[in-house]
Amino acid sequence: MSTKNQTILRFELRCTGNPFEIMARFQPQGKIVLNRTEWRGKEPRSCAVTGARIRPYSAGTNEAKVVDLEVTYRPKGCIVFVGNTKYDGWTAMVLDRRSDGTLLDGQGNPLPEGQPPVYLAYEVFDDVDFNEMDFGELVGEFEDEGVKHVQADDVLRQAMESGHFSSSVNSTFMAPRRQRPNVKIVLSSAPSGTSTDGFGTRIINVNRFTPHLQQVLVDELLQLVSGFVEGRYSINNLSNDDFVFAELSDVLVDCTPNEEGKESRFDCLNEFVPDSFLDDLAKRLMATYEIDVSVVDGKPSGLLLRTLDRTARDRAPT
After folding, report:
1. Handedness of CA 288, 290, 296, 299 (dihedral sign)
2. Integer Rg of the chain from CA
3. Backbone dihedral angles phi then psi of residue 282, each to the nearest 5 degrees
4. Cβ of 163: how many Cβ atoms within 10 Å?
5. Spatial separation of the C-alpha atoms in residues 205 and 203, rounded to whole Å
6. Last residue of some domain: 108, 143, 178?
7. Same-domain pairing of 282 and 155
8. Beta strands 244-247 and 202-207: pairing type?
9. Is 89 a member of any domain?
10. Cα–Cα 20 to 30 A to 72, which of 123, 160, 222, 254?
C-alpha cells in the first residue's frame, strides 16, 4: 500500500521583538502545535512548525530580526516514525497489545488469528489558528521523496568501483565490539527460543505455529537490525568507506521443509513480512539513529546505511 509523502514549507519572517517571544509564538512552551483550521489550502491538523531559527543579529539595535521557519505538512496517509512510535499524519498509532506481547483487537480481547494488527489512535498535539499568525514570506514548498530505493546491482557496482570494499559477516559500522555474534532467525516446528550454534551464531527460533507470526517476525527483525546498527550483532554485509549494505534477504531461514526431507529455504523474507516492511524499517532506523537509510531492491535485498555528515547537517536549515 502506497503512502503519501510529507512536504516542507519554508518561510522568511522579518520582525522585531524579544527573541524568546518570537520563538514562543510558533512553538508555545517549546511544544509542537498543529493548524486548527484550514491553512494555505492544507486541511486542519495537518501542519506543524517543526523548525524556527533566528539568524545572527546585532544586540542593542532595533533592526528587524530574520527568522527562518519550517512548517511540515503531513496529511493523513503519510506514515512516519518518531523513535518506535508510528504516526499517521500527526496522529500517534500505537499497536494494541498487552505487556506480554499478546495482540488485542482494540476492545481488550485477544486478536483472532489471521486478523491484521490493530493500532489505537491518539491525538498528542494541541492546535492553534495558523491564520492568525504571521509567517512572513513563503520561500517555497519542497516534497520529501520518502525512503529512497536503489538496485542491488548498482550497490555492488559502486562498491567494486570504489577500489576499497569488504564483504563479510563482521562490520565496524557505528559501534564496534569485540564480540558481535552473527544472527539468524529460523522458522521451524521447534519451540520458540534463542540458542547459539557451534560457530557462535545466535539462532532465534520462531515456531511456525506462533499466533500472528508476521508481527512476531517483524518485531524480531527490528531488534536484529537495530542491534546491527548499534554494534551488538552481525549480519552479512558489503561495505566500503561510504556505506554499509546490510543484506537482509537471508537473515530469515525457513527450516520447516526439513520435516519432509527437503532442504531449508533461504531468501524467503518477503514471503513472511508486509510489502512495506523495508520502507517502514528504514523510517524507524532514521527516526532513531543519525543515519541515512535506503532500501536495496533485487537479489540480494536489504538496506543501504550511511552515517550522516554532521557538518552538513548542522549547516542545513532547521
Report:
1. negative
2. 23
3. -60, -40
4. 8
5. 6
6. 143
7. yes
8. unpaired
9. no
10. 222
In a domain, 181, yes or no: yes
Distance CA 195, CA 48 (A): 47
Q: Which cell numbers hold the place of 27? A: 512553538
How many independent structural domains does the chain possess?
Answer: 2
CB 232 within 8 Å of CB 224: no
Q: In a structure prediction context, what are the per-residue pLDDT tens digits for the chain, which is 318 residues long?
A: 456 788 999 999 998 878 888 888 898 888 899 999 999 999 999 999 998 888 888 776 777 889 999 999 999 999 988 877 899 999 999 999 998 889 999 999 999 998 999 999 999 999 999 999 999 999 999 887 677 888 888 887 777 777 666 666 665 455 556 678 899 999 999 999 999 988 888 999 999 999 999 999 999 999 999 999 988 899 999 988 889 999 998 899 999 998 888 999 988 999 999 999 999 999 999 988 889 999 999 988 999 999 876 544 443 433
DSSP state of 241: S
Apex 186 CA angle, 184 and 192, nearest 5: 115
Output the nine-digit C-alpha cell for 276.
Answer: 512495506
* 64 and 153 both lie in a single domain: no
Residue listed under C-alpha cell 520563538: 23
